[in-house]
């Protein structure tokens, strides 16, 4: 055991799985000698060589398409896309092939691969380095979508993702890569895909968040407690398949829900979650489901991004709104 | 045959042709295992494939098959390349490769069943090293590169072949695949059937390159242009590319120059974009014709044999159609079963709800 931040936990997860399973490999831009621009693959090439920690040409679609070919032939590739904003070239491979090969071959082939993507804003980065596009991914059948919020979960979920028989998109909140340190076991362990985590219990309002927004929501919940609002906070951890039961049973108890995400509001997952809540808990609802989200705009650069990304204050305001009914 | 892949062959690229349209054979370039006997066997297969392809078009017109992409005119390119591979090699077909898929062991009844709208037709039996058809153009060569790379990492002496058309070479993923394959020295063959058209758009609108083969040069490996209507040249080029691949020398691009004698698919009317004269100019270059001429010259073929092979092939095609039409019909549940290995709760709920709806309709 040792206290690790999220990048270290991810590196530790990759190291552990590569040691256990010779078919596990990493590939991408700068993942080899450099150890990844965020150092998530540090030391892997020294230990496992240039084939299993493979520097590739700079081509996102190529990396992801190559990973599918490797997975079809017995490997367990973990591809790294350097930044969320460079995902669109790879979407074609994900949507047109990776998510479909099981259906297309009627179960003869699966795509046991992981695509790691540092996502989201808050690091004062240039354009195309702060995107949150989970809705597109969750809307695509045939892939799993995982969003860890803590170092412990990041390692456990990553190992589950590597061992999963289906493709997993693993979105890492780069803003909190180094913000939290916690005890992370050195050996391999798993955190199940598809199960939400109860971060904080409360009776008044259910806060639903994932990735970097969990920390903001937690702060908002602490602020709300000062005002006598007891918020229950759920970290969804997996967005596809989503743990509906976790938030539905919580909302049945609290009667109120606030969904928080960085992504634009329209057709964001907040809409989907609100729809599920009204389907399953309408009789317990005491207020409309409130969404705290990014805007339907391009993510702004450093000078303005704090206006765009939901803050604890905005989340608190949403909770007050929910409580006012 | 040594030296065919000397990069100097690319200087003023000349198309490799071994069996000419008049049935004349360049014996010194011929692969020794491609005996007259073997050529005769392959001719029988080509006749069957042409009849099967024509039948598929007819079935579509009768409403018994969905949209279909015929390969008429490309039999030599597909058969020649498919049979030049080793038993353990894999092919990654596009949507016009029925002939290559069949030659690699995919049952034609299964291929027909797929075009009839049954996905189960794409699940080829275990041991058949044929990937499912990729409908998106030019994006699947990457999978062949990755697959080949995994084999190389395990030191398995196999290669992969991706099939695509001249249109596919305009796609970014084709270039990413070529670049990756070159850099990673992947044991793979890029097999381009340059059939002159991507639906209606002619080859000259796809690329300003004089040949497609020369594109390989930019990625650091050999490209060779072959007469795609020449069974023997296609075979020889593929075999040499395979030897390069499995001996660790990396990828090869083969441009098989051919002509799509039929429409792009059954939904297309080629008279809108090409003249009858153009099509007729290609008819003497028909890939079946020259094999027959050669066999006749060798006194291994005559009219009587031609008729009996046609009759035999017709019978075989009838059985294919029967097999396809008797293919197990898919159940509504099949829509849901193959999305993920284990059905997630939401999908279970959707299936349950839909089955309840179907039950209500029955009641």
Break the fold down into its secondary structure elements and pairings.
The complex is a heterodimer of chains A (325) and B (363).
Chain A: E1 2-4, H1 6-20, E2 24-28, H2 44-52, E3 53-55, H3 60-72, E4 76-80, H4 88-98, H5 101-104, E5 114-119, H6 134-138, E6 144-146, H7 151-163, E7 168-173, E8 182-184, E9 197-200, E10 205-209, H8 213-226, E11 231-235, E12 238-240, H9 244-254, E13 257-264, H10 269-281, E14 290-294, H11 305-308, H12 312-323
Parallel strand pairs in A: 2-3, 2-4, 4-5, 5-7, 6-7, 10-11, 10-13, 13-14
Antiparallel strand pairs in A: 1-8, 6-12, 9-11
Helix pairs in contact in A: 1-7, 3-4, 8-12, 9-10
Chain B: H1 36-61, H2 75-83, E1 90-92, H3 98-103, H4 108-115, H5 141-153, E2 160-165, H6 172-184, E3 188-194, E4 197-198, E5 201-202, H7 203-206, H8 215-218, E6 223-227, H9 231-246, E7 252-257, H10 276-282, H11 287-297, H12 303-325, H13 334-337, H14 345-362
Parallel strand pairs in B: 1-2, 2-3, 3-7, 6-7
Antiparallel strand pairs in B: 4-5
User: What share of residues are in beta strands of chain A?
Assistant: 15-25%
Bin the helical content of chain B.
Answer: 40-55%
Provide the residue-averaged pLDDT of chain B: 95
CA distance, first residue to last residue of chain A: 47 Å
Shape of chain B: globular
Query: Can you summarize the main beta sheet of chain B?
Result: 5 strands, parallel
Query: What is the end-to-end distance of chain B?
Result: 72 Å
Low-confidence stretches of chain B: 1-11
Q: What pattern of helices and strands is seen along the backbone of chain A? A: EHEHEHEHHEHEHEEEEHEEHEHEHH
Q: In terms of quaternary structure, what is this?
A: heterodimer
Q: What do you see in this structure?
A:
The complex is a heterodimer of chains A (325) and B (363). Chain A has 325 residues and is of the alpha/beta class. Chain A contains twelve helices and 14 strands. Chain A has helices at residues 6-20, 44-52, 60-72, 88-98, 101-104, 134-138, 151-163, 213-226, 244-254, 269-281, 305-308, 312-323, and strands at 2-4, 24-28, 53-55, 76-80, 114-119, 144-146, 168-173, 182-184, 197-200, 205-209, 231-235, 238-240, 257-264, 290-294. In chain A, strands 3-2-4-5-7-6-12 form a seven-stranded mixed sheet, with helices on both faces. A five-stranded mixed sheet of chain A has the order 9-11-10-13-14, sandwiched between helices. Chain A has a two-stranded antiparallel ribbon with strand order 1-8. In chain A, helix 3 packs parallel to helix 4 and helix 8 (213-226) packs across helix 12 (312-323). The N and C termini of chain A lie far apart (47 Å). Chain B has helices at 36-61, 75-83, 98-103, 108-115, 141-153, 172-184, 203-206, 215-218, 231-246, 276-282, 287-297, 303-325, 334-337, 345-362; strands at 90-92, 160-165, 188-194, 197-198, 201-202, 223-227, 252-257. In chain B, helix 1 crosses helix 12 (303-325), helix 2 packs parallel to helix 9 and helix 4 (108-115) crosses helix 12. The radius of gyration of chain B is 21 Å and the shape is globular. Mean pLDDT of chain B is 95; it is low at 1-11. The chains are: A alpha/beta (325), B alpha/beta (363). The A-B interface holds A 51, 54, 56-57, 59, 61-62, 65-75, 77, 89, 92-93, 96-97, 101-110, 141-142, 144, 165-166, 194, 240-242, 244-245 and B 119-120, 122-124, 126, 131-132, 134, 136, 139-140, 142-151, 153-154, 160, 172-173, 176-177, 179-180, 183-184, 334, 337-341, 344-347.
